Amino acid sequence: MTEATAMSDAAEKPAKPHLPDAQIVQSVKHWTDRLFSFRVARPKTLRFRSGEFVMIGLLGETGKPLLRAYSIASPSWDEELEFYSIKVPDGPLTSRLQHIQPGDEIILRPKPVGTLVVDALLPGKRLWFLATGTGLAPFASLMRDPEVYEKFDQVIMMHTCRQVAELEYGRQLVEGLRDDPLIGEIVGEKLRYYPTTTREEFSHMGRVTDNLASGKVFTDLGLPKMNPEEDRAMVCGSLAFNVDVKAILEGFGLREGANSDPKEFVVEKAFVGDGI
Ligand SMILES: Cc1cc2nc3c(=O)[nH]c(=O)nc-3n(C[C@H](O)[C@H](O)[C@H](O)COP(=O)(O)OP(=O)(O)OC[C@H]3O[C@@H](n4cnc5c(N)ncnc54)[C@H](O)[C@@H]3O)c2cc1C
Ligand SMILES: NC(=O)c1ccc[n+]([C@@H]2O[C@H](COP(=O)([O-])OP(=O)(O)OC[C@H]3O[C@@H](n4cnc5c(N)ncnc54)[C@H](OP(=O)(O)O)[C@@H]3O)[C@@H](O)[C@H]2O)c1
């Protein structure tokens, strides 16, 4: 093949089609038949606060982007972006997204927003992360952010799922944190992890709400009952979970805050709807 032919071949080959705001998938890990995580390249210009979410998706059948809100599960210092996702069997996005492979493109709208940010809370002694299911995702980001440990003496991650296997992503993340060369030392003994299940035998069991209301978690961790002087909380789960946790936190005297009005706790939905 002459040089001229080679050049014309290259010119004729259509350029790889690029989605709008396309990012390349770097790795994918499946945790259960309902849960997977994946990492994508981070746009150089994307700045976000740990705990925020963005819109991500794929091109829909009509050629229009099919986008959904996703918490960024990686911390703001990470060079890649990580996401932790449900697989809804007939979900418009996740029925397809669950099949992505390294090298594939996804759409990522680079406009991070959200209430689960440290700035939305008043200073305090302890920070509680309260999550069910994929509601862990924003805390997967925050747990890896040094700012959290600079601002709080203790950080408590309560995560509840129906089954043990659904806790595995969070468990490995916490285990890995303690030995992490970048932030292991900062995290040290400050991070307390309190995973529970509700429908399978496990060392610790029960709903977040029940373990807070009964005081079991305070006894188990040797901590005082939650109070508005010392404790701050961030909540992320189903609407029913958020409503029930909010009532309990308010019962402890904590008030709901927002970015524009920091108080003692903040809440964000992990998804819209009643569950699959
Ligand atoms: C602020 C915000 C942040 C979010 N962050 C995440 C995230 O980090 N990871 C993630 O997996 N999803 C997250 N979601 C949900 C996400 O936006 C989509 O709903 C999800 O990806 C399913 O999309 P779908 O098109 O397949 O199905 P949809 O049509 O969006 O959902 C179908 C049904 O599945 C159920 N469902 C949707 N998402 C979940 C879920 N995560 N857990 C349990 N049931 C669910 C609901 O009942 C919903 O009505 C977030 C939602 C919001 C509002
Ligand atoms: N997880 C599974 O194995 C599984 C499998 C197939 C389909 N699904 C479907 O997927 C949907 C989402 O399931 P999911 O397990 O991710 O979420 P989920 O039903 O919200 O449950 C997640 C965890 O949150 C607890 N919880 C639910 N509501 C609560 C509340 N108001 N206050 C405190 N804790 C609460 C649950 O405890 P309880 O167990 O006490 O409710 C469970 O431990 C459900 O509609 C389900 O039918 C789930």
From TrEMBL:
Keywords: FAD, Flavoprotein, NADP, Nucleotide-binding, Oxidoreductase. PROSITE patterns: FAD_FR. One of its GO terms (molecular function) is nucleotide binding. InterPro entries: Cbr1-like_FAD-bd_dom (IPR008333), FAD-bd_FR_type (IPR017927), FNR_bac (IPR033892), FNR_nucleotide-bd (IPR039261), FNR_type-1 (IPR051930), OxRdtase_FAD/NAD-bd (IPR001433), Riboflavin_synthase-like_b-brl (IPR017938). It is an enzyme of class 1 (oxidoreductase). Coiled coil: none annotated. Pfam families: FAD_binding_6, NAD_binding_1. Gene3D superfamilies: Nucleotide-binding domain of ferredoxin-NADP reductase (FNR) module (3.40.50.80), Translation factors (2.40.30.10). It catalyses: 2 reduced [2Fe-2S]-[ferredoxin] + NADP(+) + H(+) = 2 oxidized [2Fe-2S]-[ferredoxin] + NADPH. Its cofactor is FAD. GO terms for biological process: cellular response to oxidative stress; heme catabolic process. The keyword Flavoprotein applies. Its EC number is 1.18.1.2. Residues 17-119 form the FAD-binding FR-type domain. Belongs to the ferredoxin--NADP reductase type 1 family. This is ferredoxin--NADP(+) reductase.
